[in-house]
Amino acid sequence: MGLLDGKVAFVTGAARGQGRTHAVRMAAEGADIVAVDVVAPVAADNGYPAAVPEDLDETARLVEEQDRRIVARVADVRDSAALDAALDEAASELGARLDIVVANAGVSNWNRFWEISDEQWQTVVDVNLTGVWRTMKAAAPRMIAAGNGGSIVVTSSVAGLKSLPAQAHYAASKHGVVGLTKTAAIELAEFDIRVNSIHPWAVRTEMGRDRSFEPQIEAHPQYARSFASLLPERAAHTDDITNAVMWLVSDLGRTVTGAQIPADLGATTL
């Protein structure tokens, strides 16, 4: 018996990294998966490569290896119609229930706030904040209609709990999803749907390996103090973040809602 037997989970940004690990682990625990990813460049200022369609295909293969069903579709979280279409298709293939949402899709890049272009700002906020709202907006009515309760987990960041230099747009978006999470937790509580946010530090993904921030640190060495953590390990593995997600989406975390869970190597303590 798995922790999530018979449940359906919707994961955004599922082609690789944290999203893939979340999807595969939930499948291993018995859930069928709805996986979406844009699998294309969305932010010209990013210092790391975008996912490609083959990445999403690999996620689907790994889920199917767990003997679970998956509906994997290309969709941009900035596009409500695409999210609705993916969930409608999933309902026809997997059934009408939707128990879990992991709003994981996000982008990250760097600049001092007055040097961020209008396009750079808007893209990060549109993906990281408005994309989470669109994801939850698409999913919540389906979860309510299914009548099974459920759990929504939003991927925020250490930058959602403390400010980081050269990332005003990212920090604003990640702080924003905390407010969205708390409001959603209040509004969905009567339907037995819990809503929480997780707050990773550096994670061993393409985004986490981005070195395009280094010129900012070299030019402004005082920024370095903001990027420390307490534990010796400087970056988590995707499985570490998935462990937190599994606690929140399963009955192990059934009393937890409206919470901000740091999985951050102690970074928010400093």
In short:
The chain is built from seven helices and seven strands. It has 270 residues and is of the alpha/beta class. 47% of the residues are buried.
Structural summary, described in words:
This protein is an alpha/beta fold and 270 residues long. The protein has a single domain (8-269), classed as NAD(P)-binding Rossmann-like Domain (Rossmann fold, 3-Layer(aba) Sandwich), CATH 3.40.50.720. It is built from seven helices and seven strands, in the order βαβαβαβαβαβααβ. It has helices spanning 17-28, 53-65, 80-94, 118-146, 168-188, 214-219, 238-249; strands at 8-12, 32-37, 70-74, 100-103, 150-155, 193-200, 260-263. Helix 4 (118-146) links the parallel strand 4 and strand 5. Helix 1 (17-28) runs parallel beside helix 2, helix 1 (17-28) packs across helix 7 and helix 3 runs parallel beside helix 4. The mean pLDDT is 97. Keywords: NAD, Oxidoreductase.
Task: Write the SSE topology.
Blueprint: E1 8-12, H1 17-28, E2 32-37, H2 53-65, E3 70-74, H3 80-94, E4 100-103, H4 118-146, E5 150-155, H5 168-188, E6 193-200, H6 214-219, H7 238-249, E7 260-263
Parallel strand pairs: 1-2, 1-4, 2-3, 4-5, 5-6, 6-7
Mean pLDDT: 97
SS-based class: alpha/beta
Describe the main β-sheet briefly: 7 strands, parallel
CATH topology type = Rossmann fold
The CA-CA distance between the termini, in Å, is 41 Å
CATH homolog superfamily: NAD(P)-binding Rossmann-like Domain
One letter per element, helices H and strands E, the order comes to EHEHEHEHEHEHHE
Uncertain stretches: none
Topology, number of strands: 7
Coarse shape = globular
Strand content: 5-15%
CATH level-two architecture: 3-Layer(aba) Sandwich
Q: What number of structural domains do the residues give?
A: 1
Strand order in the largest sheet: 3-2-1-4-5-6-7
